[in-house]
Amino acid sequence: MKRIPLVARILAGFALGTVAGLAMSAWCAPETVKKILPYISPFGAVLVAMLKTVVYPVILFSLILGAASLPLRKSGKVGALVLAWYTGTSVFATVFGVAMAYLMNPKMEAAEKVAGAGVEGAKALVAGGAGTGSSFGAFAASLFQNPFAALASGQFLPIIVFAIAFGLAARWILDNAATTDDARRTVTALLDVCDGAQKVSFKLIDCVVAYFPFGVAALSLVNFAENGALLFGPYSRIAACVMTGVAAMVLVVYPLSIAVFCRENPYRVLMRLRQPILTAFVTRSSAATLPMSFRAMDDMGVSRTLSSFSLPMGATVNMDGVCVHLPVFVILAANMFGHSLGALDVATLCMMIMFASVGAGGVPGGSVFLLFMVLENMGLAPEQVSLVVALALGINPVLDMFETCCNVTGDNVCTYIVAKKSGLLAADSARSAPTSGKSTSNPR
Question: CA-CA distance, 194 to 438, in Å (whole number)?
Fold first, then answer.
């Protein structure tokens, strides 16, 4: 089996799972599907759980090493470039998503009937305050937490902030002329420990990869058995709107960016990213896809001094797929309830969606909860919000696959372009390593 390329094995597992899932959805009674899937879904859930088990130590140690490997001046420049790129693509994706939603004008016939019993569950979420947006002060405070508590609870932003600050502090000690030799040796030894922990974490990823085709088959079977038929039913216009927007981002916008900034064939670059893109599509989780994104960037020669910062940051704040996805349901709500949106409303909507996308969290289905905040700020009644959210819950598992695929593609394309423009491809990354002690990065 190892002689077969990994991507071919993953595609085979995805194809088999998809065909089996669609066949089960079409030919088996819903009651039968509900009885069978609990025996299959654990095989897919195990894959996502294993990836998430590995991803937190990978993020922590990779970010520490990445921050410690870049000179302080260059660190600020590269970090600003990454954040500027993510902000720019988020703005574009939001405006593009709103334009696509207006162009395709999603509607829903007999919405109450389609939503069915899901409305009651959505009402419970609304009553629980799931859509209440936090203030900027609360958001800023959430960035600085006990790092061990953040690791235990899986909160990405506090982990990222602590790891970058820790790595930069280590770099400052190494570069400071007043630092004693003993202190410099101690910090270098600490970074060597982090380097060893990072290598072990990536070896664990290699072990997880061996199980990948089986987990992918199970995930795709469950996803399409539960939701495949929805694509051909009353959700078809909504699904077509989101899929068209995502396809345009992945196949046109990102390739144009690569062609303009890197001066190379963009589709060859995308082909080299097929492994994380397919993983994102199946797992529906930017966080769970991080290990595969790291592998892809390593294989493409991107220094880990950049990828260890850019990829975890992107999995947390860069949600272009969400920016394309959310406007569809906002315009759907406006069509359903006769809610008129003026030019100022559309501008406010774009800003709200862009900032809300940062809270998607990189986990399956995170964008649904952002609908609460966006729809409430439109001035809709709680009953109306509940109905739209119930409709979103019905189709979200399918749309989330395309949305996450877009998010992860954007993360990897950004990392590659910034590496190309900043001299952090292949041999360039070695010149950025610390001069004291052994190199703490592991560029390939």
Answer: 12
According to the model, what pLDDT value does residue 413 have? 95
Residues 194 and 237: their CA atoms lie apart, in Å, by: 49
Tokens of 222: 């469950």
Instruction: Identify the bridge partners of residue 425 per DSSP, sorted by sequence position.
Output: 302
In this structure, what token pair is assigned to residue 291? 């290990």
Q: Are 56 and 151 in contact (CB under 8 A)?
A: yes
85, 317 contact by CB (below 8 A):
no
> What are the sequence ranges of the domains in the chain?
6-430
Structure tokens at 416: 């590659």
Residue 233: predicted pLDDT? 64
Residue that is written with structure tokens 């570069």 in the block: 175
Residues 325, 97 contacting (CB under 8 angstroms): yes
Is the separation of the CB atoms in 293 and 276 below 8 Å?
yes
Query: pTM score > 0.85 for this model?
Result: no
Q: CA 58 → CA 196, 289, 331, distances in Å?
A: 11, 12, 39
Q: Write b or e for each residue in 398-436: b if 16 or more Cβ atoms lie within 10 A of its Cβ, otherwise e.
A: bbbbbbbbbbbbbbbbbbbbbbbebebbeebbeebbbeb
Who's near 366: CB < 8 A, 6+ residues apart?
A: 322, 359, 360
pLDDT (tens digit, 9 = 90+) per residue, 181-219?
899 999 999 999 998 988 888 788 777 777 878 888 888
Number of H helices, E strands in the chain: 20, 0
Q: DSSP letters of 10-70? A: HHHHHHHHHHHHHHHHHHS-HHHHHHHHHHHHHHHHHHHHHHHHHHHHHHHHHHHHHHHHS
Tell me the C-alpha distance between 81 and 89, whole Å: 12
Q: What backbone torsions phi and psi does residue 303 show, to the nearest 5 degrees?
A: -65, 140
Euclidean distance between CA atoms 38 and 168, whole angstroms: 47
Measured CA to CA, the distance from residue 334 to residue 329 in angstroms comes to: 9
**CATH assignment of 6-430, among 3.40.50.2300, 1.10.3860.10, 3.40.50.150, 1.10.730.10:** 1.10.3860.10
- Terminal Cα-to-Cα distance of the chain (whole angstroms): 26
How far is Cα of residue 95 from the mean position of the Cα atoms in its chain?
Answer: 19
CB-based burial of residue 292 (10 Å sphere; 0-12 exposed, 13-18 middle, 19+ buried)? Answer: buried
Q: Would you say 305 and 424 are in contact if contact means Cβ atoms under 8 Å apart?
A: yes
